[in-house]
Design brief:
Elements (H helix, E strand, L loop, with lengths): L2 H9 L5 H22 L7 H46 L6
Keywords: Membrane, Transmembrane, Transmembrane helix
Length: 97
């Protein structure tokens, strides 16, 4: 056995699967708590803050959709008004006889 192989074996840790899974879950929970704390969502109001953000995002989506619908309506009305004006100009009192 070489020195590198011996050193690698000394660095290895053997755990039963259940202990390994528990260790992973504990590390994941710590990481999640740390991430929430870093973004300011570690207090009692965090759930309410998240709900508020979701509501805000939903409102923004609704506003964008409504804005787009309004723009399409105005463009449609403008095109129809131009068509009506064109027909009126051809058939109406503005044409010489």
């Amino acid at each position: 056995m070489t020195a590198d192989n011996h050193q690698r074996q000394d660095d290895m840790v053997c755990l039963p699967r259940t202990e390994f899974e528990a260790l992973l879950e504990q590390a994941a929970c710590r990481g999640a708590r740390k991430a929430l704390k870093e973004v300011g969502l570690a207090d009692e109001e965090a759930a309410n803050d998240i709900r508020t953000l979701r509501d805000l995002a939903g409102s923004i989506k609704t506003m964008q959709r409504t804005f787009l619908q309004t723009v399409v309506r105005w463009i449609t009305i403008g095109v129809l008004a131009l068509l009506v004006a064109g027909v009126a100009a051809k058939l109406g009192p503005f044409t010489p006889k």
